[in-house]
Write a structure and sequence with these properties.
Layout lengths: L1 E11 L12 E10 L2 E7 L8 E4 L4 E4 L1 E3 L11 H8 L9 H10 L2 H16 L3 E4 L1 E2 L6 H12 L5 E6 L10 H16 L5 E6 L9 H13 L3 E6 L7 H7 L4 E4 L5 H9 L3 E4 L1 H7 L6 H6 L4 E3 L13 H12 L3 H15 L16 E4 L6 H4 L6 E3 L3 H4 L1
Parallel strand pairs: 1-4, 1-5, 6-7, 8-9, 9-10, 10-11, 11-12, 12-13, 13-14
Antiparallel strand pairs: 1-2, 2-3, 5-15, 15-16
The structure holds zinc ion.
Zinc ion binds next to loops.
Length: 390
């Protein structure tokens, strides 16, 4: 069963083999899908025949967004905390404990239903790949449960037992790290692809550089890939530990020194920027231009979570990246698609060239530029192809 998707006013392929810069844009394009994968792209005038046809009437198509940083297994609500923050309260990660209590008390079915609801919400907004972290259980059983549920919906599951030091370990962070790197890791690794740690030495709730290194090295020894919450609230060792250990991604990167930028530019670690967090905590944005100009690979993700940023919209993050961080619309879209794929070490998503998964996001607009030009308007949605569903 093959499907010809035609009437594409502007197709963004992210195919570097095409001449038109990193986005590889084809105007008046068509695309053929077989067995869930792209098998042909090109001008509509050269399109081959297929078993079925879907005409998009001149809409733009971009690769489905790759949201490489999200916390979707949780219960509870922290709208009150957001309201307080907007009235001047400072964010320091401490409210995570509220979500931990609600998550521990929730049933599997409740957590599964919330997770499924958020994933559907993302798909309706054009996100087709999403990474899901644990980190609101913080016991051996609750972390393993979170990852089991996450693994039901995505292969990109991340063990974040080192999200914060739970209240019952207050003042005993090293003891908690021993639990995370020992029995908790053993119970979680079978359900996880990645390990992550909130490295923030200035926060009373998070982990310093040595603790972060211990968590990452234990995860690596258990066969997991590495990701780091780094340099969000203040300068610190997170980025350099991430680069040194070959982490796939250092996320946040809000407070960077010249040495941090040099390390990222000289390594393979992607800098994943999460501008929804700065928006929702009223904090200064990362200096994205400095990273791009240094040659660092930059990704954009939502950090969707109930505390510091409860948006699931990649289009909103693109608009913020353009307006507040001075990315061009093309750079922002690339970061939200191919950049996210790089941050997850994936070559089958984040692009629409032959061989890639047929993860198409359709825009109710003639050009990808509208993602930033029309902020807050729900232009993007994942294309559901009859042949792929079957
Ligand atoms: Zn996060």
């Amino acid at each position: 069963m093959s499907t010809l998707v035609t009437g594409i006013g502007e197709l963004v392929t992210n195919d570097p083999a095409l001449e038109d810069g990193p986005l590889g844009v084809i105007p008046d394009a068509s695309l053929v899908v077989e067995h869930g994968h792209v098998v042909w792209t090109g001008p509509s005038s050269e399109a081959p025949d297929a078993d079925e046809r879907v005409d998009l009437g001149g809409r733009a198509v971009v690769p489905g967004f790759v949201d490489s940083h999200a916390h979707l297994v949780f219960a509870g609500d922290r709208a009150g905390e957001f309201e307080a923050r907007m009235s001047g309260a400072r964010y320091d990660g401490g409210g995570i404990g509220t979500t931990v209590a609600a998550t521990r008390a929730a049933s599997d079915d409740d957590l599964r239903a919330r997770l499924g609801g958020l994933l559907a919400e993302m798909r309706r907004q054009g996100t087709t790949t999403v990474e899901v972290k644990s980190g609101y259980g913080l016991t051996v059983d609750d972390e393993a449960r979170s990852l089991r549920l996450a693994a039901e919906v995505t292969p990109e599951t991340t063990f974040l037992g080192a999200h914060v030091v739970p209240a019952e370990f207050a003042g005993r962070a090293d003891e908690y790290v021993a639990l995370v790197t020992g029995p908790m890791l053993a119970a979680c690794a079978p359900h996880a692809r990645w390990v992550d740690v909130f490295c923030e030495p200035g926060s009373a709730h998070a982990f310093d550089g040595d603790q972060a290194r211990a968590v990452l090295e234990a995860g690596r020894d258990a066969g997991l890939g590495l990701r780091v919450h780094a340099n969000q609230l203040s300068a610190g060792p997170g980025v350099q530990v991430a680069v040194e250990l070959g982490a796939a991604s250092a996320d946040h990167c809000t407070h960077l020194s010249a040495a941090d930028v040099d390390a990222l530019a000289g390594g393979t670690t992607v800098a994943t920027l999460l501008p929804g967090v700065e928006f929702s905590t009223r904090s200064p944005y990362p200096d994205a231009r400095r990273l791009l100009d240094a040659g660092v690979t930059v990704a954009l993700a939502t950090d969707c979570n109930p505390g510091s940023c409860f948006t699931s919209s990649m289009a909103f993050c693109i608009a913020l990246a353009v307006r507040e961080m001075r990315l061009t619309p093309a750079e922002a879209l690339w970061a939200a698609t191919a950049g996210g794929a790089a941050a997850l070490d994936r070559s089958d998503v984040g692009r629409l060239a032959p061989g890639a998964r047929a993860d198409l996001a359709v825009l109710d607009a003639p050009s990808y530029r509208h993602l930033a030009y029309r902020p807050g308007v729900p232009l993007a949605h994942a294309l559901e192809l009859p042949s792929v569903r079957a």
